[in-house]
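Put briefly, the fold is written as integer tokens. One such record reads:
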Amino acid sequence: MLASLTLESGALMQSLLHMERIIELGEEIDFSLLSSKTGEISAQSRDLLVSQLTILAKKFPTDKSIVIAMTQLLAQNNKFEEALEQLATFNKIIPHTPRVVLLKAEILNRMNNPKTALRTLRDGTKKFRDDIPMRLNYARMLVRQNEFKSAIAEFETLLKQDPDNHGAGPKVVEIGDVVVVDLGARVNDWVSDITRTYSVGPTTNETIIEVYMAVYDAQNLTFPLIEAGTPAWALDDIARTHIEEQGYGDYFIHSLGHGYGVCVHEPPLLSSGTDDPLFGLSYNQQPLAVWDAITIEPGIYLDGWFGVRIEDDFLVNQESHEFLSADLPRDLDWFMIKADDYSQSDLGSTDGSDSSDASETLPFPIGMVQTMMLLTIVASAFVRNENEE
């Protein structure tokens, strides 16, 4: 309990002492939790933590999480060679685990050595054949290196290993479906959090279009007030009032947004007056401050039919704000995925069938998340081909 409290408060050295005491008492604790709180501290402070962890690693030589924590801190200080040495030393004592392989690949990628990172993940999928995060990271790395056919093969292997896709279900994305895509990236321990909603095929359904525009307009109404000094609750109130006026107030079931940084969900919570368990944040009355990074993500969800959420990232600055995700289109035209937005030939054929056969579903009968991943692959290939032409 004390370890968690001191960690949350930012007293990292004190938290480390409590963690050590827990291990001495024969209990288990994950030392790598430290790295989630060290993104904003100085390089010197990280070095001090590494020194203490080095002592603990000698005291508890079989504790994997201590070495992982050391490696993560060294990587945060851009000491990549030292981080890899730590992993190599650790491997002499205890065989590699999937988590260690993933960490090694991440470090190699940050060292601008993507080919070695890819090889590391490829070897990892052979050694840990049933490890889903390993194979998923390998597939994503293949996409980044434009090895689309190999990536698709990995996604198909994932489906065989986990047909329910972590509880998302075996739903096949079909023409007429409305799909919410929540995505982001982590760069040097900093994250983004963006959502777009797409209609698979053009739609003339009045309710779908009305809901999309209600969310779109509610989001737009908040933009002029994103600045230091604006109460966080005020932005939620503006968006929520508009959605209520459109008749969908009961279907906006979460807060307008949240802060983000090292973690995806951080204060401030943009709420009109309640805690938000979805974001794991508590209501606060603090105004926005300069350098707050926040999301604006109104949503309407009609249970059993479809949902719409549009989420964008902003950085509050001294003038007003910077619209960080402004380059990602979100208007009604981009909401509707049309048949000529992608070419099925870009994906190739996985069963030898003629790719010209008509189908009322997307190219492969797979789960929603994998389908959207493949759409991302197709979009990337399409844009690249357009540029080359």
